[in-house]
Amino acid sequence: MSLSSDHQHPSWRPPESPSRIGITLETYILEGMLGFPAATGAFTSLLNQLVLTAKLVTSKVRRAGLANVLGYTGQTNVQGESVQKLDEVANETLLSVLGRQGHCAAMVSEELGDMRVLSSDPRAKYLVVVDPLDGSSNIDVNISIGTIFGVLRKEESKAGAEPSDFLRPGRDLLAAGYVLYGSSTLLVITTGLGGVHGFTYDPTVGEFFLSHEDIRIPEHGATYSINEGHSARWPESVRRWNAWIKEDAKPEGRPYGARYVGSLVADAHRTLLKGGIFAYPADRSGQGKLRLLYEANPFAFIFEAAGGKASTGIERVLDLTPRSLHERVPLVLGSPRDVDDFEQFMRGER
Ligand code: AHM
Ligand code: MG
Q1: What global pTM score does this model have?
Q2: Does domain 25-212 have CATH number 1.10.540.10?
Q3: Which residues, chain by chain, have CB under 5 Å from ion ligand 2?
Q4: Lowest mean pLDDT: which of 62-71, 76-85, 276-285?
C-alpha cells in the first residue's frame, strides 16, 4: 500500500537532511550527487565503466592466493595455460571495459609503455590515467593493494588522442579515485568541488554502497608514513624533519606514531581518514619514485578536495606540468598543518 501525503500520520515529517548512507554508487553517479557541474550521459557512463572494472578486479583479487593452492605451478596452471599476473589482469580488464562504449579516447597506464588509443571517434571525450594494481609487491603476502584512476577531458573536436594530450597539470582532472582491496573493497571518488565520497562493496549483491560521505581530512594528525629504510638516501632536510617528528614533545603532539604499509593506496587512505602525513620524498639526486600522472595527481586531487594538501615538498603537485607519461615525482600527502611543517623543513626554514 502506498501512502499519499493526505494519508500520512499527522506527526510524520520528512527528515530534514536525509542521510544518503546506504545508497548505491551507481545511483549516486546517475543522480549527479558527485557534484560534477556539467554531468553528461557520457561522463556518467564512463564513471560507471570504472565502477564495473572495480567489481571485476575485486573478484580476481579476492581469489589471488588460490593459483598455487589449486596446483598451479609458476607461470603455468594445471591446464597448461599461463597464469597471468594480477596487475596484467587488472590492466586488461580496464582496457576491455573502457574500450567498449567509446567514451574513453585513450588510456595511460603504469602497465603500458605507451599511451593506448581506445576510440578514435571524435565523440570520445575523455582520457583516463590509471595504475591498475598499485602496491603489487604486497599481492603475494595478502596485504592491501589498490587501483588508482584519474579522468581528463580530451580537447573538443579532435579525433583521436596523442600522448601530449596527457601532459597537463593535475588541476585539470575532472575526476579521480581509488579502489582499496583491503579488509573490504572500498571505492573513493571525487569530482573536486563535490567532495570526496567512499563506497564499500558488498560482494553478495555486487554493489558499492555509500559508507563515507563527504570525507574531510583532519587539520593535523598523529601518524607519519614513510619508508625509513631509505633514510640514508634522503636529503638532509628530510632527515631533520624525520628526527623532529619523532621528538618527545608531548605538548606539541609529538612524537607521531609510524605506519607504513608499502601500498600507496592503503597508506594514503589511512592518512585521508585519520590525518597525518604520507611522504615518499626524493632521494639525494632529486628523484622520486611515484608516478605523476596516475599516482601523485589523482591522490593530490582527492586530498585537496578533502581539505588536505599534496606537495612535492617544494611545490603543489597539481600545478606541475608533466614532461613525460611515466614521470616520477616526490610526493607528500596529508593534513594541511602536517604538509606545511614538512615544506618548512624542505625550504630550510626549520
Ligand atoms: P608499484 O606501482 O610498482 O606497486 O610501486 C608503487 C608503490 C606504492 O604503492 C608505494 O607507496 C611504494 O611503491 C612503496 O615503495 P617502497 O617499497 O620503496 O617503500
Ligand atoms: Mg603503483
Answers
A1: 0.92
A2: no
A3: 131, 134
A4: 76-85
